[in-house]
Amino acid sequence: MRPLTQNSFYSSFDTQCLERREPDDYRTPFQTDRDRIIYSSAFRRLQAKTQVFLSGEFDFYRTRLTHSLEVAQIGRSICSFLKQTSPFLNDDFFIDPDLVEAICLTHDLGHSPFGHAGERTLHHLMKPYGGFEGNAQSLRIIAETIYPGVDSRRGMNPTRAFLDGILKYKRLFRDHPGALHQFIYDEQAYLRTFVLGDIDLDKIPDPNHFRSLECEIMDWADDSAYCLNDLVDSINAGFLRFERVQRWAEQQSLQGDQAQHAETVLSAIRDRKAEARFSKKIGAFIRSCSLAMRSTAASATTNRYRFSLFIDPAVRVEADFYKRLSQELVFDHSHLHQLERKGRVILEAIFQAFSESYLTECGLRLMPESFDRIIRLTPDLRARARVMCDYIAGMTDGFAIRTYKRLFDPGFGSLLDLG
What we know:
- The protein folds into 3 domains: 12-209, Hypothetical protein af1432 (Orthogonal Bundle), CATH 1.10.3210; 214-334, no CATH class; 337-414, no CATH class.
- The protein is 55% helix and 2% strand.
- The protein has 18 helices and 2 strands.
- The longest helix is centred in the last third of the chain and has 25 residues, at 334-358.
């Protein structure tokens, strides 16, 4: 068997796990991280969770799963491009593409059903119990709950570099109780401590922007997929029609590059070549990346904080333009707001029904045996609410709708389909 290629970019600090992990003769620690994500039920459920449009409405729309796959492809391509072009990297010193792929595949793992509207709803409902945040939930899944059991659950024992790549935000909820997002759960303080090692977070001006290089790559890959590929879905869905975009552009009084970006969208719609035009731009967004040296509290400890990802400002401005266009013409559209309201009503009703059985008193068994048993064995109210939230957040859109119907629709369901 050929020995694994050594990469001096990473040290034992980066590959250390929460607990001891048996060495693998044919996979690097980061390949193991990646493989464990791909074979998890949490990852498979992304195929039926909303990206922009309700999952299952049409078969060509992106779901959280296809979006995550696209982000992973862009992330790997950025690693390859930087290895070939950056003077800081070489064949023995490079950003691990398997690590970046694992982070990209995982970045939306904790997102709730019904997209960001569902996330906001769960946060509102969970505020008395520590809040809900999609990135924090992804962290919780890989570190604590990805493998289910009858009496308990456990995490996948990830490497430090992988955990840090998911740890996009480093502020605790208790330090910012009014925050709507961009925090981790108070109970995850031990994960933050493990990731940072001896680094004093109090000496860092803005902990939420203190991110590893791989996390920065994931974030730009996510932005690239979000602003380009979701734009294509919006055009195909008819939300971005030529006349609407043209009228919007005229109202904005766009000049220079902004006017050119609007014309790019208009010509893609007019020529019916949105897929080809914006897929081609993925390459340009990848080529906009370069590495820069930086000095941080962790620079001496790991190369992941010795280098930072630099994005061509003109390309970042272009990405922001496409996101603004989608926000104002798609995400603020009445049709999507109607679907968001429906998702909110469904999640609020399910949460209330489960709360009556598991938070006020242990009443009816409304959740599967494994979750039901874990909650009943958990004396702390806040911890019970978190387990209940885990179950709801893990639902696909369709399963949440069926659960709602089973609980509230007299004409839906029977004793035969409750298994």
